[in-house]
Amino acid sequence: MTVVPETSAGSWRVMRQDDNGNRFLVAAGLLRAEADALAATFEARGHKQLYWVEADRPGHPPGTP
After folding, report:
1. What pLDDT, on the 0 to 100 scale, is given for residue 48?
2. Is the pTM of this model over 0.70?
3. Rounded to whole angstroms, how far apart are CA atoms 33 and 11?
4. Which string of DSSP letters, residue by residue, matches 26-64?
5. Which of 6, 38, 41, 46 is the most buried (most CB within 10 A)?
6. What per-residue confidence (pLDDT) applies to 42?
7. Residue 15: strand pairing partners
């Protein structure tokens, strides 16, 4: 899981990458603790997909800097 530095403001989203490299938005508009917990829950299931948390950035598609 990729760790994004904590900030005091803003919302967070959970992303997933499948075996073929496709990236998907799992959830958005979360508090950092909620996003971390959700990503950890999915990773604990043992699937091959990669999950990570990133800051929501209005105007930026998920998975882009």
Report:
1. 78
2. yes
3. 10
4. EEEEE-HHHHHHHHHHHHHTT-S-EEEEEE--TTS-TT-
5. 38
6. 92
7. 25, 52
Both tokens of 40, joined, read: 């950890």
Spatial strand order of the sheet with 23-30 comes to 23-30, 12-17, 50-55
pLDDT tens digits, 10-61: 799 999 999 899 999 999 999 999 999 999 999 898 777 899 999 997 666 6
Hey, what are 16's tokens?
């997933």
Q: What distance in Å separates the CA atoms of residue 30 and residue 27, rounded to the nearest whole number? A: 7
Alpha carbons 12 and 57: distance in angstroms, whole number: 9
**Residues counted in the chain:** 65
